Amino acid sequence: MKLTYDHIHCVHTDVDEAVGFYVNVFGATETNRIDRGGAPQVYLDVHGTSVIIRGKRDGEELAAGPGGWPRYSIDHYAFCVEGKLADAVAEVRANGGNVVAEGEADELWFAYVEGPDGVVVELMEMK
Q1: Which of 4, 36, 58, 69 is 20–30 Å from 106 (CA)?
Q2: So what's the pLDDT on residue 5?
Q3: Is 2 within a domain?
Q4: Dihedral angle, C-alpha 78, 101, 66, 64, nearest 10 °
Q5: Total structural domains in the chain?
Q6: What tens digit of pLDDT does each residue of 30-82 get?
């Protein structure tokens, strides 16, 4: 099986807040907005990565966390930064992002940024 990346799909309680987070903190661009099943669905380009943000659809029952599906949030996803992680972290903070953890592993440095509804976005610099 050969797979290729397509998109990240996040469900949020407040779609406009979530879109604002990605636009303000990461410089995302909104590329499309539709109504699907009674909920807004917003397509974002985050530096070449497709992220879809949507709200609760009519009649849909969403779990509040892990173990249920469909559910709000995801655990985390990651972007590699071009340049220095420290510079990216400073930019995230300057844009109102909340960095909840920073650290180092054998092969990389990382920072976790808290987003709406518990989504965490990891930023990585490979060593």
Answers
A1: 4
A2: 78
A3: no
A4: -110
A5: 1
A6: 999 999 889 999 999 999 999 999 998 899 887 665 555 555 556 578 899 99
Q: What is the pTM of this model?
A: 0.78
Tracing tokens 């070449």 back to the chain, one arrives at 48
The reply to whether 3 falls in a domain is no
- For residue 3, pLDDT beyond 90: no
For 59-118, give the DSSP string. Answer: T---BSSTT-SSBS--SEEEEEPSS-HHHHHHHHHHTT-EEEEEEE-SSEEEEEEE-GGG
- CATH (domain of 32): 3.10.180.10
Residue 21, domain member (yes or no): yes
Query: Between β-strands 98-104 and 49-54, what pairing exists: parallel, antiparallel or unpaired?
Result: unpaired
Buried/exposed code over 62-78 (b: 16+ C-beta within 10 A; e: otherwise)? eeeeeeeeeebbbeeee
Contact present, 47 and 26 (Cβ < 8 Å): yes
Greatest CA separation found in the chain?
Answer: 47
Say if residues 71 and 64 touch (Cβ distance below 8 Å).
yes
Domain that holds residue 90: 8-126
Give the per-residue pLDDT at 18.
Answer: 95
